[in-house]
């Protein structure tokens, strides 16, 4: 039953991905990207990764769709086809990389295999000792905030840096202009 | 600013619920799915919905950009100061065991504060980025 859901969701993902590539209308492409994220979130839920699904639904389907739409409202919603010539070299590169990636999956352990190496590095310690060391029922929170506290600290800093970058690119110049002209009196107020 | 009555009435009803849900996700993250990042995004979405429905200017009156810019840094600093505090109390950086009389209580306190820092930063960042995008190309901001 779970396999059927997986196949259906992956098929939808592939169809949407192809549709996004084919579409020239960027507005429709952004909406399809939102649906793509929502389907990924459902896939993560089926795989029991509820925290990841939560993040994907909130960030991928919610905030990034809105930011994309905000960007489209500033530019245009039609993709430029001026440079859309067929690129044989790009096709070759993509096919080779895809083939290499698919070849690499043959070496991967089966999905959900309890004997996989990735599940026995530090995961055993987390699963056995979280209850005693942290005492928090949600193991994901315990790992993210405590065992991997440095990583989460780094992620928060990345978000902070992204915001500083956006402020400098989109808002900084104006603020600096206002700061320089704050003593100019009323005559500077009419210029915008 | 959208003058559609149904959308405005519905979002007035929804925005408090979205904010409440964000707080639930924030502080219930120890027990169920969720945490600071998700809660911050949901709270930011509530602010963005308010800005979409009632205009950027009224949103900026409720959540002033200067306060949000302060909160962007405050969340990161809250996270970092929990780590520094652990050093002063004799542990390693971000070692929550020493924060309280008991190691498990210290972990609870540390995770709560750290997640709060993440939530505050993410909320403020989402709202600030939306303000910057939405305020672009207008003369009234």
- Average pLDDT of chain B: 89
User: What is the mean predicted local confidence, pLDDT of chain A?
Assistant: 85
Report Rg of chain B: 18 Å
The low-pLDDT segments of chain B are none
The proportion of residues in beta strands of chain B is under 5%
Oligomeric state of shown chains = heterodimer
Helical region count of chain B? 5
Q: Globular, elongated, flat, extended or rod-shaped: what is the shape of chain B?
A: elongated
Structural class of chain A: mainly alpha
Q: What series of H and E elements makes up the topology of chain A?
A: HHHHHHH
Query: What is the strand tally of chain A?
Result: 0
Biggest interface, which chains? A-B, 44 and 51 residues
Fold and architecture overview:
- The complex is a heterodimer of chains A (192) and B (141).
- Chain A is mostly helical.
- Chain A has seven helices and no strands.
- In chain A, helix 1 runs antiparallel to helix 2, helix 5 packs across helix 6 and helix 6 packs across helix 7.
- The termini of chain A are far apart.
- The two termini of chain B are 15 Å apart.
- Chain B is mostly helical and 141 residues long.
In short:
The complex is a heterodimer of chains A (192) and B (141). With 192 residues, chain A is an all-alpha fold.
Notable features of this structure?
heterodimer; A: 71% helix; B: elongated
Any chance you could write out the topology, listing elements then pairs?
The complex is a heterodimer of chains A (192) and B (141).
Chain A: H1 2-22, H2 26-46, H3 50-74, H4 88-105, H5 123-133, H6 139-147, H7 149-180
Helix pairs in contact in A: 1-2, 2-3, 5-6, 6-7
Chain B: H1 5-27, H2 36-54, H3 56-62, H4 65-88, H5 103-134
Helix pairs in contact in B: 1-2, 2-3, 2-5, 4-5
